[in-house]
Design brief:
Length: 342
């Protein structure tokens, strides 16, 4: 079977890297490889051949190549990984209308048919596990870049990152006023986002740099190369937000940042109990007070970043994620794949 997905414009999703392909990199090869136990059908779909029924893992959304493969191999055992409460998302007025439209397409074209067909369904948060009526298994994200060392915490001026996409714009807007106050009171500090022109107006300031949204490959370079002191994740307490995974914790560890979590972050208490985050409510006084306190107490800030680094190494261990998939897919740690008829 000839596969030309690399010419069709499809790309690997962040979800695929974070929850599967990076941890399984040494086990994944091209279709038909005799040296790999997993064959890539398309950027976000994988075949596990074998003497019995082949297994197919589809991550988040199905593309034409994977759809064609499923039609050809109707006996294949299907595994599906979904990483958002897309059902709540389509009704969430805090999300951009174009994003909600994409979520609706995702439900109709991928989630609805695959949830009926899949032998196993994997989810990325306990809230999402509770949301789905079918039996699911929880999969943890894996670190895709090594956590930063913390030498940059000796820098004089604070650097702050809002590392979320446009789907979190309203979360940032809820705290934009106190954030603007902080940045104006401390012009030596800086804020960086990846929202481009979609930034709340009050955060258009000389010491705020709003990068254009990045491709996944470009953003991985940012994770490897940039360092920040504080990572902010404001989150309104919506169903969509509370079903998010703990991956933001791992991102902040790559940046060497101390996390500040809003009320809609489901894992915030666990992180705060580990000394690995500060909890804030979406009230102006709370965020401003916390930012000022951390600005004045740099040793505490570094200690929070260090605790987050340790927590990320424990929860995001790529080897543990690889062991999870080897067991789930009934794979040996090292073996040759068996060909199936093309």
């Amino acid at each position: 079977m000839r596969l030309n997905w690399h010419r069709g414009g499809s790309v690997e999703l962040p979800t695929t890297s974070i929850y599967f392909s990076e941890a399984m990199r040494g086990d994944i090869g091209p279709f038909g490889s005799s040296r790999h136990v997993i064959w890539r059908i398309s950027p976000n779909a994988f075949l596990i051949p074998g003497s019995g029924h082949p297994q197919i893992l589809i991550i988040r959304s199905i593309d034409p190549q994977a759809r064609a493969f499923l039609a050809r191999y109707s006996q294949a055992r299907v595994h599906y990984l979904v990483d958002d409460d897309i059902w709540s998302g389509v009704k969430d007025p805090a999300l951009p209308i174009t994003y909600r439209s994409r979520l609706l397409t995702l439900i109709r074209e991928t989630a609805a048919p695959l949830l009926q067909r899949a032998e196993h369904v994997y989810v990325t948060s306990p809230a999402l596990q509770d949301r789905l009526p079918c039996r699911t298994k929880l999969v943890q994200p894996g670190l895709i870049e090594p956590p930063a060392e913390l030498d940059h915490h000796a820098d004089a001026a604070l650097s702050i990152v809002f590392a979320s996409t446009r789907s979190h714009r309203e979360d940032l807007a809820a705290i934009a006023r106190p954030f603007s106050q902080f940045l104006q009171q401390h012009p030596e500090c800086r804020l960086e986002t990846f929202l481009g022109d979609h930034i709340p107006p009050s955060l258009i300031l000389p010491n705020a740099h709003h990068h254009k949204p990045r491709s996944w490959n470009d953003y991985r370079h940012v994770l490897r190369s940039r360092r920040f002191h504080i990572g902010i994740a404001p989150a309104l307490p919506t169903h969509f937000n509370t079903a998010r995974s703990c991956n933001k914790m791992l991102e902040f560890a790559c940046f060497g940042a101390a996390p500040l979590y809003g009320s809609g972050v489901s894992f915030r208490k666990m992180a705060a109990d580990a000394g690995a985050a500060v909890i804030c409510d979406e009230t102006p006084g709370d965020w401003l007070a916390v930012l000022n306190a951390l600005h004045e107490n740099r040793p505490a800030l570094r200690a929070i970043a260090a605790a987050n680094r340790s927590l990320a190494l424990r929860l995001g261990d790529p080897q543990a994620l690889r062991s999870f998939w080897l067991e789930e897919l009934a794979l040996p740690s090292r073996a040759s794949s068996e060909r199936i008829a093309a």
